Amino acid sequence: MSTTTSPQVISPAHLLKHWQGHRALTRHVIEAFPEKDFFEFSIGGMRPFAMLTAELLSIAAPALKGIVNRVEKPYSEEGTETLTTKAQFLQKWDEATEEINTYWNQIPIEDFEKSFNLFGQYEFPIIENIFYFIDNEIHHRGQGYVYLRALGIEPPFFWARA
Fold it and tell me: Cα–Cα distance between 101 and 50 in angstroms, integer?
């Protein structure tokens, strides 16, 4: 019996590089915030960027760990509530980046099309969950750009992904 495979548009390694490029850019946005404004500034009732960053930290690495270990846990921001400085957020961001690299390498290519119930709420193929992680980060980073501009701070160029 022979098997056929469809050509890939993007490899898992390239997708990880793309995602980590977005994470590097989001890190630059975090760095651009003055300490006080990172925790307090908001517009139109949106959450401060520290709260948005806490959400991102609560999704990417923990959800990828859940996918690898096939453990469905409810969404929780546990572990971010003790972060009280921008430096702590940046350290946690860097730790999450390394966790993502570790867990990513444990996902066999054939598993990307398998379903996973993210946080016990969203049953989608693993690849769709990963797209959600990236899209959610881009969405919140966009809010950070608006905040920085409102504060009179030039945000990083959107293509600065290193």
Answer: 23
Q: Of 127, 129, 110, which is closest to residue 118 (Cα–Cα)?
A: 129
Q: What is the residue-wise DSSP string for 92-120?
A: HHHHHHHHHHHHHTTS-GGGGGSEEEETT
45: left (phi over 0), alpha (psi -120 to 50) or beta: left
**pTM of the complete model:** 0.90
The answer to whether the CB of 151 falls within 8 A of the CB of 36 is no
**Left, alpha or beta for 79 (phi > 0: left; psi -120 to 50: alpha)?**
left
pLDDT, tens only, 8-34: 788 999 999 999 999 999 999 999 999
145, 131 Cβ separation under 8 angstroms? no
Please name the fold of domain 19-78+87-103+124-162.
Four Helix Bundle (Hemerythrin (Met), subunit A) (1.20.120)
